[in-house]
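Q: Sequence in, structure out?
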Amino acid sequence: MSCDYFNKKKVYSEDLLENELEMFTWNEVDEYPTFSSCDSTTGKENKKQCFENTLRDILNTNLSQYHIIVSEAIEDTVQLKITIDKEGNFSINSIESDPLTKQEIPQLDSLLRRSLDSLPKIFPAIKRSQQVTTQFSLPVIIKIE
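A: Exactly. Output:
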């Protein structure tokens, strides 16, 4: 009888750990997701900056290829809600932008998604020596005159 109790307790604590490791936000991980181009960067905050800057550079380079025409100037900080799973797969969950931006650039969401669909290999975040799924928000400034 007492052996059963311990077995159940053990399974239960493993289930808890499993659930706890499923999704983290930026601030909860020991190491942020990274690109190999950030390998030489030292320090957790610097690596975070390198990762975000690399994403923004790729985004800006790819977005600049599209000729976006607007009837009035747009200056908006768009929030990309991003998930990087424990295998390093990148996905955009949602894109939050100003109503005027959506009106002026209705194709913005699809352009942003297309601009980030061929990223270099991402090494997932680490928490307690495990690769984990993370969610974070990436602010992107959209300025078109």
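Residues 4-21 have pLDDT under 50 and may be disordered.
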